[in-house]
């Protein structure tokens, strides 16, 4: 089938950390025999070459000079909780530029299906194109788009418009589905799809790679490594993790916390570790390039995701690091929040704790520190979930099946295939 894809964020160069999940999914869908084109917003850092992808990849410009192309690519929402000041001023230019370019592309390529990533801005823009051309539209949610849709009456209206024009919507989280329903989007059109990962995500990492990384980070030989990874923004809840690790560090002398990622709160987190007196037990390497990420997961013994719902309403949907940790065979200690419980099941693939509870987080981490056999058992079960259900091959196959259903004249959301995960 022919698929036209619209996004505003896509890896700009090899190993870019911006939306690799979008690229991997669309590349895998293309590898199944679909003819996939992808249109994304231009960025001054764009360095893609024809030989580094198997989709028809192009960018659109929406403003002059090029240096003003600052929307998307993790720069639109400051700290994941508030819009940057220039965003609202530039947004009309992005919407207009994307609409013109995508409509022209769709008319030229005549796709069977339009696939938009994020309900805003792309679902709204693609919805207008779908309405103008009569081509079925699939919208895939990722989390920050729903937060955007909640922020003001105009954005809520645009999200509702996108929902009306979509044939179907995929969500990684029941929480995101509920929130869209609260602003007037028909939840009967929304089905579940998990964020996913390559099954062999970390299989290629050698012991030598792990030893080299431990040396680079100065992790003592024999230490158990607790890993957390993500951009240093409010919704990640890393300050609660640091509070809980103070308790862990007092009880366990051979444990190191690796808190990997860069962002607006990096210096705050570093300062917080110092105030808690645990700087010597915490490693904060900053932003990690994509090719390094699997090495961090192979180095770790336990992975933790202390996500929170910010006062603004911002929250992660289903962080991609969750299936990555599972693919690496790690037990996951995570907040019982948003889409996380779709993959993390108590004592099956990890442990769930209340958000903002440093005490509960410390107790769950302490359990895995004291029970290495349980770490191995639960980590093994997590890996099997990825192998059997939550990997790019399975998800791409499911979406390809959904495309075929949507292309039928008699398609209705009630007939759509449903994605299911087993936790045997």
Protein described:
The protein is of the alpha/beta class and 424 residues long. The chain contains 14 helices and 15 strands. The chain has a seven-stranded parallel β-sheet, with helices on both faces. Strands 12-11-10-13-14-15 form a six-stranded parallel β-sheet, sandwiched between helices. A two-stranded antiparallel ribbon has the order 4-5. Helix 2 packs parallel to helix 3 (119-133), helix 8 crosses helix 12 (358-370) and helix 11 (321-327) crosses helix 13 (372-388).
Helix content: 40-55%
Structural class: alpha/beta
Low-confidence stretches: 78-82
Average pLDDT, to the nearest integer?
Answer: 94
Largest sheet: 7 strands, parallel
Percent strand equals 5-15%
Shape: globular
Radius of gyration: 21 Å
Cα(first) to Cα(last) distance is 34 Å
Keywords:
about 425 residues, alpha/beta, 7-stranded parallel β-sheet, 6-stranded parallel β-sheet, 15 strands
Short structural description:
It is built from 14 helices and 15 strands. The protein is an alpha/beta fold and about 425 residues long.
Write the layout of secondary structure elements.
Elements: E1 2-6, H1 20-31, E2 35-41, E3 56-60, E4 77-78, E5 82-83, H2 87-109, E6 113-117, H3 119-133, E7 137-140, H4 144-149, H5 153-165, E8 168-171, H6 174-182, E9 190-192, H7 207-217, E10 224-229, H8 238-251, E11 255-260, H9 266-275, E12 282-283, H10 293-299, E13 302-305, H11 321-327, E14 332-335, E15 350-353, H12 358-370, H13 372-388, H14 392-406
Parallel strand pairs: 1-2, 1-6, 2-3, 6-7, 7-8, 8-9, 10-11, 10-13, 11-12, 13-14, 14-15
Antiparallel strand pairs: 4-5
């Amino acid at each position: 089938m022919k698929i036209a894809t619209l996004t505003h964020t896509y890896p700009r160069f090899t190993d870019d950390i911006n939306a690799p999940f979008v690229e991997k999914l669309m590349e895998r869908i293309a590898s199944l025999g679909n003819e996939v084109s992808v249109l994304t917003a231009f960025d001054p850092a764009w360095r893609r070459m024809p030989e580094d992808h198997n989709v028809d990849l192009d960018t659109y410009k929406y403003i002059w000079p090029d240096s003003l192309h600052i929307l998307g690519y993790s720069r639109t929402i400051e700290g994941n909780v508030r819009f940057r000041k220039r965003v609202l001023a530039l947004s009309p230019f992005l919407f207009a530029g994307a609409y013109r370019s995508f409509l022209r592309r769709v008319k030229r390529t005549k796709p069977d299906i339009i696939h938009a990533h994020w309900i805003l801005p792309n679902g709204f823009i693609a919805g207008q194109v779908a309405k103008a051309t009569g081509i079925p539209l699939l919208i895939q949610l990722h989390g920050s788009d729903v937060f955007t849709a909640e922020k003001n009456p105009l954005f809520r209206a645009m999200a509702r418009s996108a929902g009306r024009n979509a044939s179907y919507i995929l969500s990684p989280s029941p929480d995101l589905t509920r929130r869209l329903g609260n602003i007037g989007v028909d939840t009967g059109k929304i089905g579940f799809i998990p964020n996913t990962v390559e099954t062999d995500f970390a299989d290629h990492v050698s012991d030598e790679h792990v030893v080299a990384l431990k040396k680079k980070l100065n992790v003592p030989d024999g230490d158990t490594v607790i890993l957390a990874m993500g951009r240093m923004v409010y919704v990640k809840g890393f300050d609660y993790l640091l509070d809980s690790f103070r308790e862990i560090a007092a009880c366990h002398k051979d444990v190191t916390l690796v808190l990997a990622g860069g962002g607006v709160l990096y210096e705050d987190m570093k300062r917080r570790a110092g105030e808690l007196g645990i700087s010597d037990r915490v490693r904060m390497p900053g932003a990690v390039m994509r090719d390094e990420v699997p090495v961090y997961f192979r180095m770790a013994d336990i992975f933790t995701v202390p996500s929170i719902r910010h006062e603004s309403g911002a929250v992660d949907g289903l962080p991609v690091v969750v299936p990555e940790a599972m693919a690496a065979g790690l037990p996951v200690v995570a907040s019982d929040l948003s889409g996380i419980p779709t993959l993390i099941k108590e004592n099956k693939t990890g442990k769930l704790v209340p958000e903002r509870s440093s005490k509960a987080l410390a107790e769950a981490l302490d359990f895995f520190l004291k029970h290495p056999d349980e770490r191995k058992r639960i980590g093994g079960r997590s890996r099997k979930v990825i192998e059997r259900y939550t990997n790019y091959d399975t998800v791409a196959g499911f979406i390809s099946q959904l495309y075929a259903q949507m292309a039928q004249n008699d398609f209705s959301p009630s007939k759509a295939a449903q994605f299911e995960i087993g936790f045997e």
